Input
Amino acid sequence: MSDVVVYSIVSLSVLGTLAAIILYIIAQKFKVYEDPRIDKVQEALPGANCGGCGMPGCRPFAEELVKADDISELNCPVADNEAMGEIAKILGKELGEKTPLVAVVKCNGSPEHRPKTSHYEGASECRIATELYRGESDCPYGCLGLGECERACKFDAIHINKETGLPVVTDEKCTACNACVVACPRDIIELRKKNKKDRKVYVSCINEDKGGIARKSCKVACIGCGKCVEVCQFDAITLENNLAYIDSYKCTLCRKCPPVCPTNAILEENFPPRKEKKKAGDSAANKS
Amino acid sequence: MLKTFPKGGVHPAENKVTASKPIETLPVPKTVSIPVAQHLGAPSTPEVKKGDTVKAGQLIAKSSAFVSTNIHSSVSGKVLKVDKVTDTSGYRQTAVVIQVEGDEWDESIDTGKELKKDTGLTGEEIRNKTLEAGIVGLGGATFPSHIKLSVPKGKKAEVLIINGAECEPYLTADHRLMLEKGEELMVGIRLLMKALDVEKAMIGIENNKPDAIEHLSSLAGKYKGVSVHPLKVMYPQGAEKQLIKALINREVPSGGLPIDVGTVVHNVGTAVAVYEAVQKNKPLIERVVTVSGESLKNPGNFMVRIGTPVSELIEAAGGLPDDTGKIISGGPMMGKALNSLEVPIAKGTSGILVFPENKAKRDKPQNCIRCAKCVSICPMGLEPYLLRSASEREMWEMVENERVMDCMECGSCSYICPSRLPLLDYIRLGKSTVSKIIRSRKQ
Output
């Protein structure tokens, strides 16, 4: 009886040891070296897997960070400067200066400004609607309001306002990952430079029609009159295809352009209220 | 047993209320706007500028590529502008806007009514005339006809199929054309046969048009090689591939053309237009449009100049009813809802339908219940429910593998779905995305 116990213990131990030796040899032979820093960098990244950096996810981005000699061009849109600083410390590489960006919706066509002329009943997706027809209003450029951007956002930062039917960006939550910009089939959303206290001055329209036609379809459309271009002292505003565009890198937020816009297409946000001027101007045209 | 195509198909209520209404000629409108992109392929290049005087039938935009065609003025008058004008989709497209002055036709056009049977022209000359006259497929797809007439090397057309199925409910434009212009149609078919060098032509007509079948059968005896075939009523029989299957029992391969199985399909309207172009030198500047709908006072079939605003047609049909919910350009199955009445009639507009509100509404979509009705009625043998969910999830590779490019957008799946799912909307999305992917792959 005891023989059986002894034999089985001995034979199993021999087998086990043999297997261990073989496994060890194989493991040594086919070992893949992985930089331990990749794990560390991945840990330091926010882990949103949003793809905003241009990589398929956080892991490939971490590998890219470790591999690259110069990481000044590589930027995680979600990570703040602190997190990126930590990554730079782990890798011992120079960090590039990152300009904080924020998504801005360039359409102000609420039903009040842009009356509905038809009713859409098809599948509730912007990319389908835009291929079918111009949308419920007369503006073939404006927001369709079916919420493609809202569904694309992984950070709960953009929502359709039920009253206006337009998307609203919550600036604190927006990480400028670019997902909504890609999702919008009409290219209404743009990433613009983030300013102090989330202050913004931008042309809230992308209508390239001639003034008369644009005005007919929407009360707050840019008509391409060029008044803002004249008033801007910093060459920040350009006029192309009947549409003004404010370069957010050149704009100094002097707020000279919003009052001269005859259609109130230039919006200023998060500014303190303007001081009442002696001359009766139309400066109070925009709500903050 | 009447012939039809074997796979799928639906039979919506026919509602051909205007079948007995003769074609009325609509008076020339005050202004017309003629879009330069009325056909499949590249838009034509405008040849006129603001202030020019044009005559009806004069060339105003020239074919710009292989798949493109000419466009002619449908009226006489002065060019107001060459500018962007809202088209059926609501987007603005380049169009020539003409202020009408009188009704003077180009001298080369024979406006006489008498039938001109004989032609000394060769096949090549007929083909060139088709391009010159700007003729496109008038069934709705608006594919330039001269391309269909040039048979590629190494292939041979054996039989010409003439499409008189008119399977869309409500539409009766082709039906009336067959009754009223039967002789012209027959000569047109002979011309097409000559251009294609075929000995045999088959006209397929659905059995709900017995008068047209009878009329054309009696005429067919006088024209060598032409025969008339009644078909069982089934939508979408007017689709090229379905009609070929029904008439000669051949199947066009996926991604192939009818010429791959030795046939070419032309619509009856196209055949009449070819007759007018070749024998009378008249370019494609007017067409028959059915204006129909339950609440319209005076629905009918109208001969309309290309570029006439839709509002004029509705006025002629007794004005817009108060309960209007939707206006459709084309048939109820494949047509497009309009969002303005000022859009012009184009070469491919076969009908204008005015639907009351209660009929126009789409029901709220429910969940897919896996009943597989869409699978059983799809005439192309696709799986619409699968294409929808794959498109929704952006699984484009799967969408492509499930042969989305074979879909002809007949709308039978959306029509039959008991859950009222917008199947076709998603399939269209898949189709357009996949075609973009295929194009970028080729580059």
